[in-house]
Specification:
Largest sheet: 6 strands, mixed
Structural class: alpha+beta
Keywords: Membrane, Transmembrane, Transmembrane helix
Helix content: 25-40%
Strand content: 15-25%
Number of helices: 13
Distance between the termini: 134 Å
GO biological process, one term: carbohydrate metabolic process
Length: 781
């Protein structure tokens, strides 16, 4: 059989040899099938005519699919014929009686219900023509494109609808978006209303852009009134540039978006500040922010006055009332060494506050104030007060208020020093000046409250020394001389004993010390077996200047250093002071040596002495000493080998006495100087302070009877003179450091360390002197 197509209907052609096919089917069955087929076809035709006459307008289109009916007489027919006015429809297929198909579809397709003959509409999907991908928006952008005419449309980002619009009749649309936040990746999604299409699905389009808005400027840390510090918010990690009347500064926003920078070079008064920011992904800067008005005030107030209590008074451990005068609107802080006793605002030119509790002892008390713009004054002249000597007696406030109650209701209580003193003064919790070690820098938790500093600010060396002459100085010097004798007894002499003991370790010449050194250092070959590095000759003047500057830098680093101009001034002061100290330690001795010996006693560079300075700086930082240990010597005397013991002892005296005299003079001059005013006054004070510290520190180090030191030469020549000069040297150093050590409550630490060192040194000496010889003699037998 070969398939053939007629009038769009595929059917199976029947072989014309019907006789052979029909002979296999009984005649009765064939007749019944033929009658049934005729009945079905007739019923279908009558139903079609009736339906067409009743509703001719709803006739099914010619392409409506109809299911095929299989003829029982021919099981090979796959679909029914097309229903039409042709009465000669084949007898092997027929259409259902309730459908009038004109163009049957594939077998098994569902018929289209009557009355739903319109094809579903197709909506135009939305498109975006602006902005393009990668565009950097300043926070507002015009979004445009094409869409289905008349369709509602929205633009959103992150689930938030930014704007809504309706597509014009020509298919164009635009929507203005504003209020975007800075981000390297912001996705704008355009959504067209799904009511236009018949499929029930919303149609969308999207684009990803970057957003960089202008930063914000909030003025200074305390508002419009500032000492030059500016701050605000920006995108985290952005570089923010602030400008005001030609002056600019830059800062980097932290992880929270906060930024700050110091604005300098402007006169005090009103100014207008703008700022902009830049990020690596923005490929340029943001627009400028709106102008913010500030009032610049960079003039630090004068030191406040402490009127009560008087110097040398005995006070209870807590509750003593401090009072004085200051600048209106400022906040005054009272310090006892490193302790903050109390804080109070200045109202009508006066202030008063009760002290919080401190450990019993004698402290150096100073006061300073910070004005409303954040400028910090220098501290007042220090006075010494003894706390804990009047236990159980709590003085009343000047106006008769209860103990512990501030006279000003806005002043902070002693148990809550962080409470704001008043609405007009800065809150001590975030603007309290730091301890007298750094009175020029208020301690803000995020650094924004910190004063930017000027050349005239105080440093740790500006007022590090207690007065040499004053109330209680006699008792201080007595304690200091006792401490000096203690150091000589438990440190200097045991050190000499230990050094001498270790020096006899190789007395028999058996090479034990050399072998031990080789094991410790790894050196078992001569240094001359290796290639030597090329010698680089430098001018002694250059080497000396470099060593002196390095020593000055080490001395400055013995205390915490802040990034402020005052610390550069301190470095210059330290370099000046150490130059004077090096000259005092060598020039008089060299002149005396030439006159006494008639031989050349020269001055040579000794950069290795920087290790002693570094050790003092490290010890000062670890122990928190204020003032710090300062050595600073980088030169030494070159004495002829043939110089006798007596001459070497006299040269040692010529080194130590000028150092002690210079140190005492510098200390007296620093004590008698008035409160430093301006950068020049602060520099001079620091020169005197570093000179005094370096003189006594250097004299103490040179007094140690170790190696070829002047102390060892003096001990050989005159033990009594060595003891006297050593006690004065260590006593002066103790007088300098005693207030800091005693105030910290850790005075027992150096005592324990000294006694322990003495015990170890004596034990080593006793073993080598008495036990080792006995063991050696037993072994010989």
């Amino acid at each position: 059989m070969v398939p053939e197509t007629r009038q769009g209907v595929t059917r199976t052609a029947v072989s014309r040899d019907r006789g052979s096919a029909n002979r296999s089917i009984p005649d009765a069955v064939r007749r019944l099938a033929a009658l049934a087929l005729l009945g079905v076809c007739g019923s279908a035709a009558l139903a079609g005519l009736a339906l067409g006459a009743a509703s001719p307008a709803t006739a099914a289109p010619s392409d409506s699919p109809v299911p095929a009916a299989s003829s029982p007489a021919d099981a090979t027919t796959s679909s029914g014929p097309t229903a039409s006015s042709d009465a000669t429809a084949p007898a092997d297929a027929t259409a259902p009686a309730d459908v009038t198909p004109t163009d049957p579809g594939p077998t098994g397709s569902a018929p289209t219900p009557p009355g739903d003959t319109t094809p579903p509409p197709t909506a135009t999907p939305p498109t975006l023509s602006a902005p393009t991908a990668g565009y950097v928006s300043p926070g507002a952008v015009s979004v445009r494109g094409q869409g289905e005419p008349g369709a509602p449309l929205t633009v959103s980002s992150g689930g938030v609808v930014l704007c809504s619009t309706t597509v014009d009749g020509d298919g164009a649309w635009s929507c203005e978006v504003d209020g975007l936040t800075s981000s390297p990746s912001t996705t704008l999604i355009v959504t067209q209303d799904d009511g236009v299409s018949g499929d029930g699905q919303a149609q969308t389009a999207s684009v990803t852009i970057a957003v960089l808005t202008p930063p914000t400027v909030s003025g200074g840390p305390r508002g419009p009134l500032t000492n030059g510090a500016l701050r605000g918010t920006a995108y985290p990690g952005a570089v923010v540039t602030a400008a005001a009347d030609g002056a600019t500064c830059q800062g980097v926003a932290d992880g929270s978006g906060a930024w700050s920078c110091p604005l300098s070079g402007l006169a005090d008064g009103p100014h207008s500040v703008r700022a902009w920011q830049e990020t690596p992904w923005s490929a340029g800067a943001s627009p400028e922010s709106a102008a913010v008005a500030i009032t610049l005030d960079t003039t630090a107030p004068a030191a406040p006055a402490l009127l009560s209590p008087a110097a040398g008074a005995g006070l209870p451990a807590s509750g003593a009332v401090f009072s004085g005068t200051g600048e209106d609107g400022s906040a005054v802080s009272v310090f006892a060494d490193a302790y903050v006793l109390c804080q109070a605002p200045v109202v009508d030119g006066s202030w008063s506050c009760p002290a919080s509790e401190v450990p019993a002892g004698t402290y150096r008390v100073v006061v300073l104030q910070q004005d409303a713009a954040g400028n910090v004054s220098v501290q007042s002249s220090p006075i010494e007060l003894a706390f804990g000597t009047a236990a159980g007696t709590t003085p009343a406030t000047p106006d008769g208020a209860a103990p512990g109650t501030p006279t000003d209701p806005a002043a902070p209580s002693p148990t809550d020093a962080a409470a704001p003193p008043s609405t007009s003064a800065p809150a001590p919790g975030d603007s309290t000046p730091s301890a007298p070690g750094a009175p020029g820098t208020p301690s803000g938790p995020d650094g924004l409250e910190r004063s930017q500093g000027t050349w005239a600010d105080a440093t740790q060396f500006t007022t590090a020394l207690s007065p040499l002459i004053g109330a209680g100085s006699a008792s201080t010097w007595l304690v200091a001389l006792i401490a000096g004798g203690f150091v000589v007894a438990v440190v200097a002499l045991p050190a000499r004993l230990l050094a001498g003991t270790l020096g006899t370790f190789d007395r028999d010449g058996d090479g034990r010390r050399a072998r031990l050194a080789a094991r410790l250092t790894g050196r078992n070959r001569s240094r001359y077996e290796f290639e030597r590095a090329p010698d680089v000759s430098l001018s002694p003047l250059v080497v000396g200047a470099g060593a002196l500057l390095a020593s000055a830098a080490v001395s400055v680093l013995s205390v915490p250093v802040l990034g402020q101009p005052a610390y550069l001034r301190l470095f210059l002061a330290a370099a000046t002071a150490l130059a004077i100290v090096n000259a005092a330690a060598t020039v008089p001795a060299a002149v005396a040596g030439r006159r006494m010996l008639g031989a050349a006693v020269t001055i040579r560079l000794a950069p290795a002495l920087l290790l002693v300075s570094a050790a003092g700086a490290v010890l000062s930082r670890l122990a928190g000493l204020d003032p710090a240990l300062v050595f600073g010597l980088v030169v030494a005397l070159a004495v002829p080998v043939a110089t006798g013991t007596a001459d070497r002892g006299r040269l040692a005296v010529a080194q130590l006495v000028p150092l002690l005299a210079l140190g005492a003079c510098a200390w007296i001059a620093q004590s008698l100087m008035p409160l430093p005013e301006g950068a020049a006054g602060a520099w001079l004070t620091e020169v005197l302070t570093v000179t005094a510290l370096a003189c006594f520190g250097t004299a103490s180090a040179l007094s140690l009877p170790l190696g070829a030191s002047p102390g060892r030469a003096l001990l050989r020549w005159s033990p009594a003179m060595w003891v006297g000069l050593a006690v004065v040297s260590f006593g002066g150093l103790s007088a300098l450091l005693l207030p800091a050590v005693a105030g910290s409550g850790r005075i027992w630490i150096p005592i324990v360390v000294g006694v322990g060192f003495a015990a170890v040194s004596v034990s080593v000496w006793a073993w080598q002197r008495y036990v080792a010889p006995v063991l050696g003699s037993d072994g010989d037998e």
